[in-house]
Amino acid sequence: MERIERDSLGEKAVPAEAYYGIQTMRAVENYPISGWRPFPELIRAVVRIKKCAAQVNAELGLLEASVARAIMAAADEALAGRLDDHFVVDVFNSGAGVSFHMNVNEVLANRANELLGGQRGVYSPVHPNDHVNRGQSTNDVMPTAMRLATLEAARPLLGGLEGLARAFREKGEAFRDVVKAGRTHLQDAVPVRLGQEFHAYAQIIEEHERRIRRAVEELRVLGIGGTAVGTGLNAHPEFRFRLIEALKRETGEALVPAEDLMAAMQSMAPFVAFSGAMKNLALDLAKICDDVRLMASGPVAGLAEIELPALQPGSSIMPGKVNPVMPEVLTMVCFQVVGNDATIALAAAHGEFELNVMMPVIAFNLLFSARILANAVRVFTERAVIGLRAHVERCRYYAESSPALVTALVPYIGYERAAEVARELLATRRTIREIVRERGWMSEEDLERALDIEAMTRGGLLGGGAERSS
Known about the structure:
Layout: E1 2-7, E2 10-15, H1 22-30, H2 40-59, H3 65-79, H4 98-115, H5 128-132, H6 138-174, E3 179-184, E4 187-193, H7 194-218, E5 221-222, H8 239-251, E6 256-257, H9 261-266, H10 269-295, E7 306-307, H11 325-348, H12 359-385, E8 389-390, H13 392-401, H14 410-413, H15 415-428, H16 432-439, H17 444-450, H18 453-456
Parallel strand pairs: 5-6
Antiparallel strand pairs: 1-2, 3-4, 7-8
């Protein structure tokens, strides 16, 4: 069954059961691009703007109370998910997201009309442009909705980072006495404690969490009320201030009006900053995942310093093989986030004059990054970090076997002699103690003090900086 609707371009058939209308139908036909629909956070953000706008316009005497109540009731149904099937415009749609915006306007108008006893597709007494969109434009609604959606999407990401940092801290405490070989340039270095490495990972994640929180603050500044080009044409002078107060109550976020509406509508800088903070996080997460995969490599021909939980068979041909799937998937997500950030940066640079027409692709990539990062961080924490175990003896063996231990002898015998010891150690596989004793370069007491690998992980001059031997 179909119904016929009309717009300024003519007539078109729309499915009779659809809450969307002719402008949405044109977009469905025009943009069969990805098959992906807008993120729920973005839909909810636009719906919240419409709900609050109806309330404010009624308070200002610009909308009949019954019409406003019907729009608000339709919005509440949409926020509850009961109209999800009717938001059908592809994520890659018209410049600035006009088609997606009108999809929301039409759905709310048709449902509001039904609530008032009318029919879908008639748009009386509620019209998508004249009533649902009163005092608004795609050009100020979309950047405002993108901010609200990103604020919502940031919450699970920040919560996930808190959980990951906490799990790393707990492992740092659990492994505080596990001494292992340090590595620089993928070569042996002086000893460290496994716990120190995990404490460092926790610190890195906590610092990224703070960076993301700083980026979030920029998203609280809203340019709603600028309408078409930032001048506020067709909007009541009090509209934007009252709307932001209503949105504060609706979302629970500390929102503030922009000082310059035109600037807030043109610049995508807050989204670039948030995306950049996620990219920065992704780069360090990928580095940490590399560390974890290397430490877990083996179990025979690799380092095997740690063991990750066995989650699934790792090969279709090699029985018994288990792979580090959680750091692998998190790394893939990190690479995707880096690519998304590049798209956002390019799109932000192409916002000519009073509007950035690339907002749909910015919104999609921004929310995509936030979602996959939040989910990947969560499963990495739950399925890899929390159940991770240390192979204590293997760690200590590497630490005690490393030629880098000669570094602790430098304050006693100097760099050149220490290097000579290292060369002979590698050539003959004799121990450091044997080589130094043979040459008589250090007393037994100083040698034992200098080669205390636990003390090496605490730094400083072992033995109090004894005089260098001549």
